[in-house]
Amino acid sequence: MGKIIRFGISIDEGLAGLFDGHIRKEGYSNRSEAVRDLIREHLVADRWRLDDTIGVASLSMVFDHHQRDLSETLNQIQHDHHELIISNLHVHIDHDNCLEVIILKGRNRRIKELADKLLATRGVKHGELTMTTTGQDL
Ligand code: NI
Q1: CA–CA separation, 5 vs 19, rounded Å?
Q2: Residues 79-102: pLDDT tens digits?
Q3: What does pTM read for this prediction?
Q4: How far is the C-alpha of 131 from the C-alpha of 124, rounded, in Å?
Q5: Beta strands of the chain (E only): which ranges?
Q6: Distances in whole angstroms, Cα of residue 105 to Cα of each of 35, 53, 59, 82, 93
Q7: pLDDT at 18 over 80
């Protein structure tokens, strides 16, 4: 971590009140950490717009393993992109449904393409790609 600097900002009283109420509800003890997190969130989201930047993400998806060929198809797609996949968790939710969580690291564009391909596979009921960061520079 670099040197800590302080800076003041001018803000409308009403907006500041809304912000204070919001961060209190979220459990922040002071404005500084809330503002730091907002800045990080913005920077992380901005980096995901860059195709070739290395990102880290988790993809969760729920599917019915009885769906014909689905498990095999999802498995094959993942093998075709094994270099992006760090880890994989498979949970049998009930008799029919499975939850799979895949941890990904690689170029943003390739991670998004892989997630799109998996989520668009017939029989995947729900899924979400959560795009985070390697944490470097933040
Ligand atoms: Ni299962």
Answers
A1: 22
A2: 999 999 999 999 999 999 999 999
A3: 0.86
A4: 20
A5: 54-64, 85-92, 97-107, 124-132
A6: 27, 10, 11, 10, 26
A7: yes
- Give the distance (Å) from ligand 1 centre to CA of residue 129: 20
Give the Å distance between the CA of 97 and the centre of ligand 1: 6
The closest alpha carbon to 79, from 129, 125, 108, 114, belongs to: 114
- Count of residues in the chain: 138
Determine the Cα–Cα distance for residues 42 and 57; give it in Å rounded to an integer.
16
The C-alpha atoms of residue 102 and residue 128 are separated, in whole angstroms, by 11
Q: Cα separation of 56 and 135, whole Å? A: 9
Q: Compute the average pLDDT of residues 8-12.
A: 95
85 Cα–ligand 1 center, Å? 19
Distance from the alpha carbon of residue 49 to the mean position of ligand 1, in angstroms: 33
